Amino acid sequence: DAIFLIASPTKPLTALAIMMLVETGEVLPSDPVSRYLPDFAANGKSDVTIAHCLTHTSGLPDMVPENQELRRRQAPLTEFLEAVYRLELDFAPGTRVQYQSMGSLVLAEIIHQVFGMQLRDFLRVQIFQPLKMHDTSLGMSPFWESTFRGELHTRRSRIAEVNTTGLDQGDDWGWNSDYWLKLGVPWGGLLASADDWGKLCQHLLRVHVGEHGVVNPATLAAMTTNQLETMPEVPEADRRCQPWGYGWRLNSRNQADSFGDLLSPRAYGHWGATGTMVWIDPARDLFCVALTTQPYSGRRRPHAELSNIICSEIV
Q1: Which end of the chain offers a freer environment for a tag, N or C, measured as fewer CB atoms within 10 Å?
Q2: Where do the domains of the chain lie?
Q3: 10 Å Cβ neighbour count for 314?
Q4: What is the mean pLDDT of each run of 10 residues along the chain (315 residues)?
Q5: Which CB contacts under 8 angstroms, 24+ apart, belong to 60-64?
Q6: CATH number, domain 4-190
Q7: Whole-angstrom Cα distance, residue 60 to residue 218?
């Protein structure tokens, strides 16, 4: 019954939204970001493409330098975006892999400019409502303050608090604050129940076998294929050990500390800093949703153990 702060598995949902616009011909993965966000081109960023943002090869940092300052004063997302516009790249796009949350913020703004809808509303209308994911929202929805199924408590009361003991998390800006829960950051602000995530995973498994869903099978195949293979300047070690589709982290031996040792090479997923993990293995028609409130402490051994147990129990 609990609703969890999902953290980084939000990113594949942001990617799914942008790929829906790829399907309609409104954007191309090869398009420069500056085609839609002219201010982004400042300070040498004109060569960054949508594909770079989807595959963590953009050269953007994970967070803007002002991240904590912006959160402390409860800044809106527009100020985070303005900080991204001011950034210089850490490296030339398409030459390295570096995990970057800010790429998801950029993608969300492209959706806003092209479709005329904020990402939270796009996800609600285009994905969550069709899949009946009623306990899922990017940021706490105003509707969640109303009664739920005739009960007196609200969805807000069902949100499980993240254990922030020992972390630098302010009461008014940390993971459990109303500010953060309502902000709906495109890189980590999704709130969802395990049941809802299961609906999404089951839906994607059906798409893999040919059903047309929120995206078509060809689109999902592109999202779950190693897109680094198309980037010749990315080092071979990165392509092999840090493979990325469009938004999804792909299975490899380097991912065994979370995806475990028994998933097929076709498996993909994501994990989040708040202690969450999801993976989907279309070769075995299998998925896992693990939502906790215990942040990662550097190693993901419990999730690897869980993944192995699930795989060994399913024939």
Answers
A1: C
A2: 4-190, 223-313
A3: 11
A4: 96 99 98 99 98 99 97 98 99 98 99 98 98 96 65 73 88 93 98 98 98 96 98 94 96 77 94 95 96 82 88 80
A5: 60/84, 60/87, 60/89, 60/90, 60/98, 60/100, 60/102, 60/103, 60/106, 61/87, 61/90, 61/98, 61/100, 61/102, 62/98, 62/99, 62/100, 62/101, 62/102, 63/101, 63/102, 64/102
A6: 3.40.710.10
A7: 28
